[in-house]
Amino acid sequence: MRALLAGFEPFDGATVNPSWEAVRQVAGVHAVLLPCVFGESLERLRAAMLEHEPEVVVCVGQAGGRADVTVERVALNLDDARIPDNAGNQPVDQPVVPGGPAAYFATLPVKACVAAARKAGVPASVSHSAGTFVCNHVFYGLMHLIATDFPKVRGGFVHVPFAPGQVLDHGGPSMPTPLVAEALTAIVTAAVLVQDDLRLAGGSLH
Ligand code: PCA
């Protein structure tokens, strides 16, 4: 499988990021660790794409508070940071790419990816917002790179819940890392193998 998976370093005072903990457990793919920094994260991703020449790129980030693995569908051309990134940047209402389209859709078969994760025994769903922080920035930047420089690559983004160790004090939804890694394996496999996405309802009412 010529697949590249990206995970993020911890941010917002955390000591782990479940995205990287899970990505590094997926066998048979290239894995790259991205800094939680606007701009630099995308440069690191582009360098890894040039190095490994993947056919599929799936970036993965932490979405604290979500209860399942979510396959993102829409990347927005918008940086609007509620907290500073790991370099102290806090852009407000800036485009990711000046003059770029307002949004891109993931080019992964998102429904098939969700179905594959569920078949592997992991709760998963489609999400229609990756937020406006570094994850959306990387997702949009990835889709722009694909649109401009890497036309044969399929790409997308997956958000994952907190690891259990991150919610010990306050509770809330979490998912064990091996389960997240299972879901990512199923998602990447579906992304490589499935040409035409499944026609299954996956939208949300709000
Ligand atoms: N989650 C953040 C940035 C890095 C990460 O893992 C986000 O959702 O934007």
UniProtKB/TrEMBL annotation:
Cell compartment(s), UniProt: Cytoplasm
Annotated SUPFAM superfamilies: Pyrrolidone carboxyl peptidase (pyroglutamate aminopeptidase) (SSF53182)
Pfam families: Peptidase_C15
Segments traversing the membrane: none
Reaction(s) catalysed (UniProt annotation): Release of an N-terminal pyroglutamyl group from a polypeptide, the second amino acid generally not being Pro
Keywords: Cytoplasm, Hydrolase, Protease, Thiol protease
Residues annotated as the enzyme's active site: E72, C135, H159
EC number: 3.4.19.3
Protein family membership: Belongs to the peptidase C15 family.
SUBUNIT field: Homotetramer.
Protein task: Removes 5-oxoproline from various penultimate amino acid residues except L-proline.
Name of the protein in question: Pyrrolidone-carboxylate peptidase
